[in-house]
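Quick one - inputs below.
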Amino acid sequence: MEEIGYLMVQIFLLLFLAESLGMLLKKAKIPEMVGYILAGIIFINLTIFVPLSAV
Amino acid sequence: MIHFDIAEVEGESDHFLNVMGQVGLVFLMFGIGLETRLSELLDIGRTALIVALFSIAVPFLGGFLVYFLFGSDSNTAVMVGTALFASSTTITVNLLSYYQLTDTQEGKTVIGISIVVDILCLILLAVVTNLVSPVHGHAWWMNILIILVFIVAVFAAMAHLRHKAAHRSDLLDRFCSAVPRPGSEWFVLACLVCFGLTACSYLVGLSGIVGAFLAGMFFAEYEAASRIREQFDTLTRFLLPFFFIYVGLRLHFDVMGLNALLMAAVLVVVALATKYVGAYAGCRVCRMEKSQANFTAICTLARGDIAIIVATLAHEIGLFSTNLYAAVIIMAVFTQILVPIIMRRAGIPGQASP
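Output:
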């Protein structure tokens, strides 16, 4: 897959995780933005992705 | 050069996620500006200035004293104080918007205060960084002069447009009457003014969101404001999450030690306590009721971009260790997570009056 393809997959997964967490927290009456921040923290610390340069 | 790699965001302020988030912020602040008339901002000008001064002075002294008493040199303590004094207008406005409080009297007061705090913070940042490190911003007094001239010029233009709007004879009104169904023409015009003033704001050394807010205020006097708002809302909804995701992506635990976490814990407590005390005291000096003072103080607790900018600058010039740098980033992120929870605990969503 080309670099742009990997980028699209990353954006899709990142947005999916962020929106899912945002919706979960919204149900708990906590603003979605907290979910977005948590998604970023989870994403970067689980090292789901390797740098594009290493692909 | 814009960076695209999600796995490598640390230290990349020009990362594409940040760029998209920043554009979302610009649209958000433009939308808030659309709901704020010049007269409303002038009405709360004195209150906003007093509350802003208190809510800057107390956190600065708190941060300075804590680090100075723990044995840091005075320059490091000054930078810690500087990182603590700036509120996050973005978080404040976003939370008010989430709880549908931007139209309330209390909400408008908080937004006015946040804007004044933002402007004062950026002016003070220019002074402090010059005092600590003369290499950065050696002509700081010139920067301050340019910022003041810019703000006065924008408000004068706005007052002129407002006067013209009363007589319905200016260029925008003629444009409005020439377009029977305001649609994309208004949107394009609004985008041009929004990005134009945001760019000018950056050029004079202010935060871009101040320019976007002022651009929104330009259109607030016109009937088309609500339609423009609807068009911007969709874009804001899509772009804004990227800003918050990027905030989270900065917290990579691998580069943080236990010391950083302890420092962060101290900073979070000092940041929340001093900002609350400062803003509450300022509100009470302005004879606000206790409930409104509490509302205002809680809404201004979050820290954000400026704290991160100060930490990065101090780290670059060797004043902050890696642990202290990480601690300030954690503090900025965690206050953003904690404030919505504190607001809910304090029952803020149900307090404001229409």
